[in-house]
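#help-structures

NK: newbie question. if I give both the sequence and a SMILES, will the prediction place the ligand too? trying with flavin-adenine dinucleotide
OV: yes, paste both and it writes out the complex. here, I ran yours:
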Amino acid sequence: MLPDRKMYGLLNRPQSKSGFKPLPVVIIGNGPSGICLSYLLSGYVPYLKRHSIHPHPILQRKLEEAPDISILDQSIEGSMITLSRGDWMGLPDLPFKDWLKQKRRGLRNNRATAEDIAQYYQHYVMKKGLQKNFSCDTVVTSVKKVSAESISNHAQKDLQESSDSLWTLNEKSTEVFQVDGFFKTVKGDEEPFSIYAENVVLATGTYDGPTWLGVKGENLSYVHHQLSALEEAVKNNIGIMSDPVLIVGAGLTAADAILFAHHCNIPVIHVFRRRVSDPGLIFNQLPKMMYPEYHKVHQMMKEQSAACAGPYECYISFPEHHVLSFGKDKKCIIQDKNGYQKAYKISMALVLTGSNPNLSFLPNNGMDLAMDSDQPVNPKRNPIDVDPFTYECTQEKGLYALGPLAGDNFVRFVQGGALAVASSLLKKANKNPP
Ligand SMILES: Cc1cc2nc3c(=O)[nH]c(=O)nc-3n(C[C@H](O)[C@H](O)[C@H](O)COP(=O)(O)OP(=O)(O)OC[C@H]3O[C@@H](n4cnc5c(N)ncnc54)[C@H](O)[C@@H]3O)c2cc1C
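OV: that's the protein plus ligand as structure tokens.
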């Protein structure tokens, strides 16, 4: 995503002719983090709303001290990440509930479907006039710092002049980011592009690399790592008479797969490592009233194990088990904590044990940016190390990280990060007024 209406022109610009004019900022990612930052960089300036009360009293007091100063221009200590309010999945200045009302729909148990959320985000981009900032079907394959000197003479000239931009580039900048990638054309071809930017924001989320178990046969065609594979299979070849579907994992995505299979009367074998009463299990942390369907899955996990038959048909749970291997004959071997093994013939397997960010477009897969630079980036255990006031990477100036990459795992926290990045970028721009 690029904050410039000449985006397509810039991306398609013949490289040898007009050189490489660095953009002030490139945002990679089109989820809530990217959308929210795009909104703030597009001229929407957030102020404290009169008569509104923020749940955090200290933050409320600070905001009330300067109601006429934009929140972007205020210096609010780390607690700014709690600025988002209203609906948890909503973005600034368009409450999700209002959008849903327009569609003459309501929330069930205060919750929304994933489809509604996806539509709401698309609507948000249109409504706020942000489409021009987005380049769809575009994949970034490499981001690296290069010295300004290594860019062509044209680029040097562009760097210094850049007179048609609202943003003035830092004249002392000796390094810029080179961002490479490709567009997917309507015909399905890939058209490469290469652009330069003074700042890059990583808003690529953490769902692109499903976790693998690392067991034999996991690459066989009947073993999948995404829930959508089950939806596809139900459309095509799997049904009530099929061999069971093996579902591995005990998180909410695995629970969604179980609910979906249950709804379609497809037999399920459910394998997971923890005890059902393990306090770390997500089901033991969710309020029952708000999440009745997940509570139901938890009940099934408890009451319908291989050791004791329960009231639920087409489902068997295997707590404290793990998969040993997948065979070419669709036989899967599982093992319990005492080393006892069982083999099951299955129709397909879904390994739904979480996901990791795919930062393969960064040097060393972005590991050098993490809190612990010896380990891969992980949203919960090892997020990217950012300055809490600016969200700029501590290890790489000019590079920012947002959302789960920076440890903000819920949409309601994303807005605080976007505010911090926007504020930092605007301060940089104001240091070098046109
Ligand atoms: C099943 C599930 C349920 C959830 N439920 C909730 C909930 O109830 N409440 C809540 O607050 N949060 C929930 N979350 C978390 C929420 O989805 C995330 O916090 C949020 O999506 C993070 O937003 P983001 O913009 O940082 O990343 P994402 O939404 O992941 O968006 C990143 C985008 O960047 C794109 N991208 C990645 N790499 C590249 C590249 N190299 N080039 C170009 N584009 C790229 C990705 O394809 C993706 O479209 C849930 C998540 C899941 C998986």
